[in-house]
User: What shape does this take?
Amino acid sequence: MKAIDRIGQIYGKLTITGLVYNEKAKRNYALCKCECGNEKVIYISSLIKGATTSCGCYRNQRIKETCEKHGMYKTRLNKEYRGLKQRCYNPKNSRYKYYGGKNINICDEWLGKDGFINFMDWSVENGYNDELTLDRINVDGDYSPDNCRWVTMKIQCNNRTTSRFETFNNETKTVAEWADEVGIKADIIYKRLKRGWSIEKSLTTPPVNNKK
Assistant: This one.
């Protein structure tokens, strides 16, 4: 179908009202009017594929409703987002040397005015829940949609540059694998080893239940 024949067609909340020729790109773009009244110039292919269905008002409204209902600043997801910015760009952060100090950065899409919104959208679309942790697939790569995933702590521990192998009863495994086998959380075992506990004591001492 020719671009001109798409005038009047509706894609989501958008109606194509005209065409705008981009001299640099040598192609036509769609001039669209959104249900909210805003006008926006959009790639025709983005409309056809369903990648763009509004001028942005739908996403902004959804974010607004979410913020009003839950208060995003205090959410775990926002805390995670602020944490990764701190360890990448704040030299005073205790973990900076492992991230910013090693030239680990955050992609442009997740920075700036809409950085958190983009990060949140990506997280929701990629299975985020409060039980998962953010993991970089390539531990030497940056924080970006193509290099990140939400995974269990066990998977992340096995992917760390500091993944620690320990031998117990003539078997060598990562701390995460030992944690799975003995039923003690990996972070507890890590803390015990850091305190100087032997691997045997770390794996065989039941965690203290502080609940009354």
Q: What stands out?
A: The two ends are 70 Å apart (CA to CA).
